[in-house]
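hi support,

uploading two proteins for the ticket. first:
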Amino acid sequence: MRIIVAAFEETLELGLQKPGQVVPMIPTFVFGWPTGQESGDYLALDLGGTNLRVCLVTLSGEGKFELTQTKYRLTEEQKQEDGSKLFDFCADCVAGFIRAHIGDKDGSIKEGQELALGFTFSYPCTQDRIDQGTLIRWTKGFGAPNVEGRDVAELFRNAMAKHHLPVTLTAIINDTTGALIASHYVNPRTKIGVIFGTGCNAAYMEKVEKIEKINHLNLLDEDPEAEIAINCEWGAFDSFVHQHLPRTKYDQIVDESSNKPGEQAFEKLIAGRYLGEIMRLVICDLIDEGVLFLGQNTYKIEIPYSFDTAFLSLMESDPTDELLTIIGLFTFFFGLETTLAERQFFRALSRLIGRRAARLSACGIAAIVSKKGYLDEGCAVAADGSLYSKYPGFADRVHEGLVDIFGVKGKNIVTHHAEDGSGVGSAIIAAMTKKRRDEQKFMKC
């Protein structure tokens, strides 16, 4: 683990120095921390791996907020069809939400009212400013054509223009950056934000003087002490070269059969999209060897990605001696009968896969902690995502990993559940950006 952390830290540093690196270390143009006194009504749009979410966030200052939201399910077809249709769907959902929750009884917005919107777009983008983002590559199973290499802000604005709504796209952010900012708004000890869900990522605040690749922007002329949030996109760590992460043959199959072979190497070992598939491949290997389910029809479990990561959570937390939850899972979803010994093996295997994911996740956190020198004084790490919040023991295993890496000082690094980064964080960043622009306009006047 310590060897992985050292390689990880070197990779993060390289991403700050040069553009076009495997781990891109993207400057987000979110400057500095929130004051905690931001206030007002802001819209947030979150395009996640599973759902689309529209939020109205009312910031009240003093770290307080209120949230109204609606979720819309994304189909696999929407993830793969033309990008213009995907953004049209996003705009339709925003328009419908505004009609339902904002303005007068007929859904109209008061004359002169302008709503600032923060767009949480949780895929790697390069940015020249905060309200622009060019998609580097899709992750989390998305493959919508005609989006990679294009400005997603422009695509969304074009879709929104069809509805003639007084909404201004103020900021494009990553959900990890949002989690970092939202959690700091509530708890100023928060220095790192991480996502462990369908995908994985991290964000932290870096001094502008340390980011050599943006020296040409002359940002230090405005503020020599300026800090900027960095969206690491660390799911790509060890991609293509595969020199640092220990991969099994099952990991290699997951990679080679994915829609992005060779890419997102770190993510494919630890993210929720892949853990169930890793376990399914092990089971199928044992079926082929004649070890499991002799004489039974196994075609359902042989379907790729038919074994959900949530099944691992359920198996790990099965409290019964006979492991009745596991009986139900295999019977209901796959039509397979299991012996007690098989069920015990399945639970042990799920624990092994989950523990590895958590300990590798700890390596990523440790790399940022080491790079920033947070170990002695300690810091809070805001963690979000279904893997962190729902997988039994995941957080404890991350903490265990940090202690194994750093020794007793590892206890100074404490993870906690993040505030809603893709909703609240997006709104706070929209508020910070609006305030910064208003101040710049005032200075010019």
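and the second one:
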Amino acid sequence: MNACQKDDRMNNMVDDTIYFRDFKENKITVFDWGKFDYNVTVVKAGIGQQEAKVNFKIDEAYLAAYNAQEGTNYKLLPADCYKIDNTALEFSKKDYLHDIAIVFDSERIKALQGKYKELYVLPCRIEAEKGGLHALKPEMATTLLIPNVKDPFLEFTSPGLQLDQIKLSPTGAEQVIGEATLVTNYPNQWNLDYEIDVDPMILDDYNGTVSDDKKFKLLPKAAFQLLPAPYKIAEKENKASFSYTILKKGLIDGATNLFGEYVLPLRIKSVSKNGINPVASTILVPVSFQPPDIPRSGWKVIAASSEWIGGGEKENILDGNPDTFWHNIWMGGEPPLPHYVIIDFGKEYNVMMIELTRRLWNNDLKVVEFSASNDNKTYVPLGKIDFGTNSPKSTLAVNVPTTKARYLKCTVTASNRPPSSAIAEVYVKGL
């Protein structure tokens, strides 16, 4: 049996053509390290597999026509800003790609156009000798090279305050390893050495831009560890990881946990070649060290030196509403300082931190001293909170030596309007 079948394997194939792989506008990042190498790729394709000689040239007429058509105002890049050694390409039958090597002089271009401004261009055209090959479309035989000078930088991939907070707790891990990523914004061809430094000024600058409740404390030196410098990025690598270790022991002073919100401020100090991005050279690593809240269910205020019945009852310091408060008697003879209240937790806890909110929109309360007891008879001092004279803060906290206690005594020893004082809420943290 004989059968005939149409051969459609050559459908949609084209005659031999030449064209720029990247035609029309072609924006180029020229890194500012003097001589910068760039390749323009010319493609030969089609079914004929012809040999060809192709010439590459700078075409001012094409630039003028492009500006007129597109409404642009590009200028011809001067000849001293680049160098092209070979403008003639020879394609064998099987060749399909060739590069034109251009060396841009970044310093001259930068001086000419200023940093990051794309004004000067190279209008390029290719033509095959004897007219043997043409582009599929006329515009594919032209390209406009637009060099944009850019500084070669090492930088953090995510500069500024880091979103991932390192959290420590009294019962958690003794250390936590964190990591930051650095990159070059250029194709790296060198073995780079770099240094990372701790710079408290980064934190000072940050704290100067935020409200008091969002400020951080500097992480103590004993609470972190960096590996010895220098750190390295290998040749042909564009990325590196920098690790640091946060140490909980550095936030413990004897029996007192130094609870708080901290930051480890890191800066890229140096790099062995090229530069450091000034706007991406720093990170702030947030470290939170906090104890858990002791639940207030079952707590009672069992005593007060005095209380104002009619809006200043002692129970108000545990009602969860900062708009209510305990106040010493102020009508019918105000007693002198000190004033106090005693809280019964209902059972023993390891007290580690005390947080107190004073009467809102009122700065009478100045100093409160705290003491603890297991029997409501013998009290040991824990620490104090001092709001000062003109502080706008309503809430302050104090770290105290870890103390096993059932009772907490809050004693007002100083007032900005003696002998008046008021406490809105008392919270205790620990285990």
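thanks. also noticed: The longest strand covers residues 395-415.
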